[in-house]
Amino acid sequence: MDSLIPLPYYKYSLQTNPPVQITCKRHPKIKKRKKKRLKFKMAKSNTPIILLVLVVATMLVATNASGCDNDINSLKETCLQFVGVDGPKLKPDQNCCNAIQRADIPCVCTYLTPEVEKVISADKVVYVAQQCGRPLKPGSKCGSVVVHG
């Protein structure tokens, strides 16, 4: 006695006469599905160029930051008595002016946060830079101070 178990793709038959046999045949009316291969097309993109620009910009920022850190450390060592919050404005000595001449003062000014200005006077930094022959551009900002012409 044969019985069929309906499944979408295969036809099963079961023979119950000894010996018992199970056979499996693909259903003739249903076509086998083909496996679809995924094809990836290489899209033309600006991604490599954008990544290159970002890497270069990061390197430039890192270089400027480290150079500016060296300037800040040099100015702390030589000019702290002239730019400190306490005391009057004093004309800087030659060692301080030498450090000012080598430093990137606009970069140093960006590091004068309100927290730093509790110790260093932005107004005195502008004054000392001017006294040493490195005046900041009018309208530029040094810490909380806007430079006047």
UniProtKB/TrEMBL annotation:
InterPro entries: Bifun_inhib/LTP/seed_sf, Bifunc_inhib/LTP/seed_store, NsLTP-like
Bifunctional inhibitor/plant lipid transfer protein/seed storage helical domain residues: 53-142
Pfam families for the chain: LTP_2
Family annotation (Gene3D superfamilies): Plant lipid-transfer and hydrophobic proteins
Annotated protein name in UniProt: Bifunctional inhibitor/lipid-transfer protein/seed storage 2S albumin superfamily protein
